[in-house]
User: Fold these one by one.
Assistant:
Number 1:
Amino acid sequence: MKTISPNEVMDRLSAGEPLNIIDVREVAEVKNGKIPNSIHLPLGLLEFRMNELNKNKEYVVVCQSGGRSSQAVRFLDYQGFNVINMDGGMLAWEGKVE
């Protein structure tokens, strides 16, 4: 499984790189803030909404601590998507939130 550090995500965003970030946390968790411009797609709905994603794009997947996002990455990778798990999740995120 490919992984990326929160600092690397911040660096790439700061450099103006357009990243496709999927936040797989629950609604109540996202209310506390999410990475700006990330897509909220709860893990439980991923199977039903993956048709909204593009297999030609790379996605960084985020959750609270990294566990659910690693499940999502395994699932989406098996489905043919280009996905990367953000290590440590939002607990490790020190960047801006919206």
Number 2:
Amino acid sequence: MSTADQQPVNSGFGAKSTADEVLDGIDLNGKTALVTGGYSGIGLELVRALAKKGAKIIVPVRSPKKAEETLAGVAGDITTREMDLADIASIRRFAKEVTASTPRLDLLINNAGIMACPETRVGPSWEAQFGVNHMGHFALAKALWPLLLSTPNMRVVSLSSTGHKRSDILWDDIQFQKTPYDKWVAYGQAKTANALFANALSRRLRDSGGLAFAVHPGGIFTPLQRHLAREEMIALGWLGEDGEISELAKAGFKTPEQGTATTAWAATSPLLEGKPGVYCEDCDIAEPTDPESPFARFRGVNAHACNDASAERLWEISEMLLNDA
């Protein structure tokens, strides 16, 4: 695929649609969904919405006590199992347990992530944002491979972000071993990796009828901002000088219910049949970024995030990194 495949399908939904609206009339009884980060922020809202439509939900949890508290009020068939995306051994244990107890996996939603954190190393000295956001989910997909290939017409949704515009993959220094660490460049690289992962995975699911998509959920205030100081959010225009949500953010940001909608749409919409690997936003396929648009920083997908050759190159690198972990 390429930017030529990034053609909206006029879904009838938009930036302010909610997951409940997107899922209206869709029956998920008999379906199993795995949602990373499903006990916080937009992940929690997605679990709520999918469970309401009858899906059985599996939520990997790094903090069992917190997960128990936040999921206590969510109705439905929801199971939690311990897993840490920064710990490859725990991912493999989790996947082994899931594979042994679950006959099918219809939806894999790679929702969890970290953003703009201080320089941190995980696994075999991977930069944390790349290591958690990309490599953790890559390892999870590989460990769940038999389920992915044996469930007909399953879908994988990989949460990217408009942050992908900040950086392509730093091919010569992915782990910031030579380059001075920049938390936003690292975040941009990780979000580009999430999009390229969906691109490459879509080809590997083709024979089983599976599909993979990348999603930009939109700007939402969630625990994702935990590493940003108040002063930085004021400088970004997200907060006013008084520390309250700015008028700009109120106009442009989404509620968690709205921020869940594009993921729910990518996971279920029949309009995406035959559209493998595309990048979606606002409940539709995103258009290629228009560099002349005043909204170029916020809308559309950049060419480097939907490049087949880059996707395959990253897949090969990720395989090697995982083999060495």
